[in-house]
Specification:
mainly beta; single chain; 9 strands; globular; Jelly Rolls; three-stranded antiparallel β-sheet; six-stranded antiparallel β-sheet
Length: 141
């Protein structure tokens, strides 16, 4: 099946779709349905939030810290992260994030999909539905 031609996109953070999941506000800056192999998110972690350890078989991630102070565990190594920090997480690597600061921890996540998106998650909404099911959360849609 031929891939559909992707169109350029110019937008703003304010125009992005925001999804709240597991306490994190995810702003979808570049949704996967607009690109062949990348999705870009802005994540806002509230004070004292810790995201569970997990890994991704389909994508690698790069974090660019914009605000706040946190801790990231990547492959068993724990490091402090602050504004200007960059974190790279290869596929199939355990990782988690925890906000250690007195305010939000805010960072951009660039997810790259070398082999393409999972067939059952071709859109951001399909991905959120899969996570909702995985974590046993009530769907608000």
């Amino acid at each position: 099946m031929a891939k559909s031609k992707k169109e350029p996109m110019i937008s703003t953070i304010q125009q992005s779709q925001v999804t709240n999941l597991l306490g994190v506000a995810f702003s979808v800056l570049l949704p996967r349905e607009r690109s062949e192999c990348v999705e870009i998110l802005l994540e806002r972690f509230p004070k004292d939030l810790a995201f569970p350890i997990h890994q991704h078989k389909e994508c690698e991630q790069t974090y660019l810290v914009l605000e706040g102070e946190g801790e990231v565990s990547v492959g068993g190594e724990v490091r402090r992260i602050v504004k200007g920090g960059v974190v790279y997480i290869p596929r199939l690597t355990d990782h988690c994030v925890r906000n250690l600061g007195e305010s939000e921890l805010v960072y951009v996540v660039v997810e790259t999909y070398p082999d393409g998106y999972l067939a059952n998650e071709p859109t951001w909404d399909a991905h959120v539905a899969a996570l909702t099911k995985l974590y046993g959360l009530a769907s608000d849609k």
